Amino acid sequence: MKLQKIINRLQKLHPKKIDLSLNRITDLCKKLGNPQNKIKAISVVGTNGKYSTINAIYSILKEANIQSNVYTSPHIQKINERFIFNNKELEDNELADLFEEVETVNDSQPITFFEILTACYFHKAAQYPDNINLIESGLFHRFDATNILKKNLASVVCSISRDHFDWLPKDQQTIKKIVFEKTSSLLKSNIIVSKQNSNETTECIKKTISKNKSKKLFFNDDYCFSSNENAFFYYEDKFGGLKLPLPKNFRTVSTRKYFNSISNFKIIKYKY
Questions:
Q1: pTM value?
Q2: How far apart are alpha carbons 125 and 118 in whole angstroms?
Q3: Which domain holds residue 119?
Q4: CATH code assigned at 192
């Protein structure tokens, strides 16, 4: 199969699966004409809930008839899941052509698999300048391949936990360091911080991004929500509130099915 053969080649371009650096992805994207500078993006960072958050935003944009591109990782069944353009997954032949084109430009230079996939995504996304790109950051954001954007529409900070300690020096394996790696290089635009596991984490985030001049929205400070009353989801901010019905099978459906069903929600109440 052509696609699988190309994937096998791309996986052999670097001896390591992960090698935290922005040099390789920056160099390749420069050869591609810096496509990352030609797109409109919402970056999603954190530890838990990134995929769910992206699917929620994706469903909302679809309901509003706004075309989206989506870049997530890892995939569950097939690599095509990572590459959504104009609200559709790329077909095998389209993905193979994209990979082959970027592979040729890379010219066998060392680059990790995730880095060249990210370059492929940016290269394709630049063909849809009016679309909104929903981009999931992997591992730590600071040296993640997705962190070469010069500007974005917003950054969403999902729940941050004590993860990937094996990538940190033993004397720096703290929530403070993880928060720094994930949020210290957020772009200056809009930052939305979701509900965190503890006040300590929230305060670490506030301190880390205190000098970032973005407009900042924090859970409980600027907005709040709950989903434990009468099978409804309640959202409230300074403009008013939303009352949305949960899917009938909320207790049993998978995360993917749940957030795909968000596009069918109907607003019951909203006031300015």
A1: 0.88
A2: 10
A3: 2-204
A4: 3.40.1190.10
